[in-house]
Amino acid sequence: MILYKSALFDSARQDAILAHLESYINRVRATMTLPPEAVIQAVDRLGSRIAAGEFDPVIARVASPEEVEEYRALAVRLMSRSALEARLKNELGEPLRDDPTSPIRQERRPLGTLFHIAAGNMDGLPAYSVVEGLLTGNFNILKLPSADDGVTVEILSALIREEPLIGDFVAVFDTPSTDTEAMRKMAMMADGIVVWGGETAITAVRALAPPGVKLIEWGHRLGFAYVSGTPSDEELAALASHIAGTKQLLCSSAQVIYLDTASMPDLRAFADRFLPHLDRAMAAHPVTDLGAMARITTRRRCRELAEALGERESGEVLRGSADCSLILKTDSALEISPLWGNVLVKRLPRANLLPVLRTAKGTLQTAALLCPVQDRASLTEVLLRAGVNRVRRAGDLSASFPGEAHDGEFPLRRCTRIVDIEK
Amino acid sequence: MSYRSRLFRWPDPYDTASTDALFTDAARECAAYHAAHCPAYRTLLDAARFSPDDLDAIGDLARIPAIPTAFLKTHRLRTMPADRLHTPIRATSSGTGGRASEIGLDWGACFCGLSMIAKVAAPRSLLSPRPCHYIVFGYMPRRENAMAAAKTAYGYTFLAPALDRTFALRWENSRYVPDLDGVIRAIVRHAASPHPTRFIGFPAYTYFTLKKMDERGIRVRLPRGSSIMLGGGWKQFWREAVDKTVLYALAERVLGIPEEAIAESYGAAEHPILYCDCRNHRFHVPVYSRVLIRDVKTLEPLPMGYPGLVNLISPLIRATPLLSVLTDDLGILHPGEECGCGITSPTLELLGRAGMEEIRTCAAGAEEILKGTESEKEYGRVKREK
Asked: What's the whole-model pTM score?
């Protein structure tokens, strides 16, 4: 299904529409303006309708019943007028030069045309990415993920019904990923490409993007916890609960717990203390997804067979009774864990923090810092200097706060440019 | 004659009910062979306290240690040493997760395999002496490309004598590039030929090409006997964004090929048994394999109708201990009678893949972009975590 000029078209029309898209976009950009207020009002209204449960059947197509609840809460938080106005003010509201004695005047303008390539495995993200493009006044081309199930088109259509003007600024295609020709055409029309994904995705998009197109990349990130001194049981419980609650699936989830030590026995002592917390947390947040359970069981089965052949896993492994484990490693690399409550525990004396974390540049995002209060400021400083963008308390790795940046940037700002006009 | 040969020569390829005893015997024979010649496999059987002699009845199949495909990708279990193996075929899985398992076929397995293909292909009239043109929506074979998917698709082009073969993925400048326009030109050319055209390969490319023809208003009427065989991997069609019925309608409109002439097949490198759909497009379990669905937590076998991990059992292969393979697919078995096509062996419905491990938020949607066209990877879609 294709969404173009506020109407739905059969996917078979793709090439015909693409042939005229450039001239259509040029006409829109030459003659029309999308004021932020129009977008805010439409998104706010749609958010209230989602919050009221009107879209539950649509969301239920891609989410479990508990997740429907979660998405509704998310809609309220991200789509309300106050949230959107705060974002615009916070991200775009810095004073631009307006000095009567200056020979120039500055304005913030849309980048122009954005091509969004959004994730297939995070529902709602494609629409969210387009809304960011609309708020900044851009024309938006969206390539749907193959697993979309029509949800994005339905949400964007509802948005267009709230504010018909939006329909002139959106073109959505369900182009299969094999159609590189069409993807390249879309990339050629864009001033910026917004891509959400892992290293492979980003590399693929870089190969696709013509020179001169701005790349707005939101790549995978890895979170970790840094523990110095002796944390309280409350802190450990909060960290364990976050690990179990997110199953380590989020960019901000802790993959590794680093200890401020050079001693392996210290790791073991910490793991002995932390495992009961993790076990309790996993029992409270069991894995319920059939596919996830199958993966965990298959991995266990592989391990049993390898052990039967006399193979030993590298590093010491402490297993909880609730299908969770702490894996004690001798290296210090920041890497992805086996997920689902299986956490890597590594040594990282504070003197090595910066050089070690620098080797993970590009994947750094969130650090939960568990340390004595007198060390907090200095350790925070080292983490930030190493490239970490968010420093949080034990259980707050994923918590979002109003006005916060995304991976070190204000997303809306990346969708715009500053123009200088001589008076 | 070995039990294996008798099983693979059984006249009715879907007569699972009458072949239970023979299948058990063949499984015992296969397990004993691997236990005697593959020390690692022997160790695994011992660790599970399982002896091939424990196989007395079909219900005992569940006791054979099931080896995950993930394990086969990291452990080269060989019953016949590679240099001694006079094997005509070495195939690898597509390595979607970055690693591929290596499968060897012994000569005996090849003969059994040919008999199997002839029998399974018969009900769908796939075996024919009538020469035809082939359009392969898959990889042009190269000596270096050991991928089972490429070999399977190429293998199908021998079911009827080939006049010529056109490949949608051509090898140019050290990479595979799609050449759909070349394919469309070939289709138009073949429409004027008195011989039928057979289409083979990945459903995604098939659909995509037909859609392109439809858009350009290209309509041909291919001679009777023309057909489409979809396949090239387990992960190809189910839950694809395109509904099968859409593809059937498109094939009728653009090529003049009716739904009855569209068959779907699948197989896995680790379980090289040919599954071909019935006229209701369901996959009945053939006599050459038995399917168990196992509980995702306990791995205990589940009754029909319950979803779980798909465990495939076949005594075909001697070179590698693939007797009982635990796939990373989720599936359900249904009683065969419910299908209504007349075949009574159970049907296997595939629900999707347990999938790979990935971080969720920032997603992998674009990762598929160039997959399948710019690399040798099988075309696949990134599974959404739920």
From this structure: 0.72
